[in-house]
Amino acid sequence: MLKSLKVDNIALIEEQNIEFYNGLNVLSGETGAGKSIIINALSFALGSRADKTLIRNGAEFAKVTAHFVVELNDKISDILEELDIEAEEDIIIVRKMFVDGKSEIKVNGTPVTLAMLKKLTSVLIDIYGQFEHTNLLDDKKHLQVLDEYGNKEIAQALEKYRNEYDKLNSLKKQLLELGGDERERANKIDYLKYQINEIKMINPQPNEDEELSHKKNIMLNAEKLAEAYNVSQMALDGDEYNARMAISTARNKISSITNLDSSAVELTNRLYSLEAELDDIVDEIARIGGQCEFNEQEFNEVDQRLDSIKMLKKKYGNSIEEVLESLSNAEKQLDNLLHSNEIVDKLNVEINVTTKNLNNLANNLTSIRQKYARELEKEILSQLKDLGMGKSQFVVNFNKTDFTSLGVDKVEFMFSANLGEPTKCLSKIISGGELSRFMLALKTSLAKTNNVGVQIYDEIDAGISGHIGQVIAIKLGNISKNCQVITITHLPQIAAMADYLYKIEKFEKDNKTYTKIEQLDDNSSLNEIARLSGGENIGAHAIEFAKEMKSWAKNIKSGV
User: How far is CA 372 from CA 322, 375, 394, 396, 443, in A?
Assistant: First the structure.
């Protein structure tokens, strides 16, 4: 249920908070008073295109707050969970648009994208205007509409079908992992053998690429490195005076005075250690320096080896470790393929059996759908007859598709308003009046199974009067028994049927024009029904007629 709609700075509305209730909520008003503003504001909150022309002249922003109170079901709960919003019965949508083009959307205080908002509101409310295509006019939704009409029987058949459909997909996935059919498996085996052979031929070792890169770098800088090591070795252990000689001289001198100064003992020991460490350093420098020479053949071998490893990493992983892991996985897959003939044969048998079962379940689902399609056709035609369209034709057309999660049926609603005219897909109907009455007939037929809690009708009665107006009022009243209905009207019959009647008026203040919405009490409602019946000059006869209309509506609601 839409509990309230707060509108700030939308067109002629400066600030307005409208409370709505369960049942039939009817909005009326003079032409040009701003009835469409309410629908535009609500559509904006539900995710329609942000049009800056909606912002009231002189205002910096427009803002709409829609407060829904819902009975949580799986659809709503799943969407809220997807949006990372705690599932609550109160859902408050706030959408704000600024003159500079910026906008913001929040659901229960959590920022969401426009796509997220539309996904949520699609299960909360359904808006229908005279020339507006809704979910029910989208031929892609016709199958869903039929399934809703068939309710539990179709749902149960669809669940059985989906279980087998999921099973078939799982079996096919397993077969694909084992290489598919015989030809695919042979190709897969050849490919895996090629991969394994390619990696093993090169046989990379852990961290080998790092070691080779280091070695290549040394060879590229061999001359510079050799010079550094040679100079260092000469400084430490050259033919002339050097570090080794200096340390040896110092040790000899200090050790000669150990009998005179006890501190010299420790210093002598430390110089011995230093001398030993220096010997190791000199030997290491000599060893490394001796390796610092450029060997063109060795360099080419290192370079080619690095290129081979680089090629493997490009094909099989970003590191040698990942390449070796790819090798291990390929060997496991090959082993499975070489020893999986029995498994593949078994999977093929299961796939054949499951496909036959799925085909039977699909045919059964189609049969049940066709049964309910015939019932829906009769129901719609009966409703259309009440609405003065007794010559209409309505057919639920079936076409076959490949297996999908919804079965093998493609369903289209075909309609013709005139005798002798061929039926066309519902989405191609041009006449707004025909479309209005068809939609009302369809929604009346679906009222008991429709899961959308709020239905909005924007002047669905356009171009209609007299007896048909009474029929539409009755049907709106019937729909409102199962969900909240909010409708804009110009017919007194619908206003009389209202559980709650609102009047939209335009007024001027301080050289500015404003629109306001007021919920009417019983007396004001009679005046509005009288105005809709006979114009502004409301006399005693008009008031009496309004009372009769209210009495008629009350009797209809009471089942009299």
Answer: 58, 5, 14, 10, 16
Give the span between the Cα atoms of 43 and 555, in whole angstroms: 34
Say if CB 411 and CB 446 are below 8 A apart.
no
HEC assignment per residue over 128-188: EECCCCCHHHCHHHHHHHHHHHHHHHHHHHHHHHHHHHHHHHHHHHHHHHCCCCHHHHHHH
Q: Which residues pair with 425 in a beta bridge?
A: 414
pLDDT at 533: 83
Portions of the chain given CATH number 3.40.50.300: 1-124+452-519
The mean pLDDT value of the chain amounts to 85
At 321-332, the pLDDT tens digits run 999 999 999 998
40-83: per-residue pLDDT in tens? Answer: 888 899 888 878 888 888 889 999 999 999 887 778 888 888 88
Which three-class secondary structure state does DSSP give residue 2?
A: strand
Mean pLDDT of 496-501: 93
Cα–Cα distances (Å) from 553 to 69, 385, 546, in that order, read 28, 21, 11
Is 8 in a helix, a strand, or coil? strand
The contacts of residue 547 (CB under 8 Å, 6+ apart) are 526
User: For the ranges 108-122, 370-384, 437-451, which has the lowest average pLDDT?
Assistant: 437-451
Residue 172: partners with Cβ closer than 8 Å, 6 or more residues away: 351
Burial class, 260, CB count within 10 angstroms (exposed 0-12 / middle 13-18 / buried 19+)? exposed
Which residues pair with residue 414 across a beta bridge?
395, 425
**Residue where the block lists tokens 């409708």:** 487
List Cα–Cα distances, 156 to 161, 302, 364, 365, 376, in angstroms.
Answer: 9, 68, 11, 9, 19
Tell me, yes or no, if the pTM score tops 0.85: no
> Which amino acid is residue 23, in one-letter code?
G
Backbone angles phi, psi at 110, to 5 degrees: -95, 125
Question: Phi, psi (5° rounding) for residue 5?
Answer: -135, 115
Tell me the pairing of strands 2-10 and 13-19: antiparallel
Q: Which CATH class is domain 1-124+452-519?
A: alpha beta
Residue 519 pLDDT > 80, yes or no? Answer: yes
pLDDT at 294 over 60: yes
Q: How many CB atoms lie within 10 A of CB 264?
A: 17
**Amino acid 537: pLDDT:** 62
C-alpha to C-alpha distance for 476 and 234, rounded to whole angstroms: 107
For the ranges 31-40, 126-135, 168-177, the one whose mean pLDDT is highest: 168-177
Residues 6+ apart with CB under 8 A from 456: 39, 42, 125, 126, 127, 128, 485, 486, 487
DSSP 235-250: HHH-SSS-HHHHHHHH
Q: Are 3 and 22 in contact (CB under 8 A)?
A: no
CA distance to 138, 355, 358, 409, 514, per residue, from 402 (Å): 21, 12, 12, 9, 57
Residues pairing with 141 in the sheet: none
* pLDDT (0 to 100) of residue 165: 96
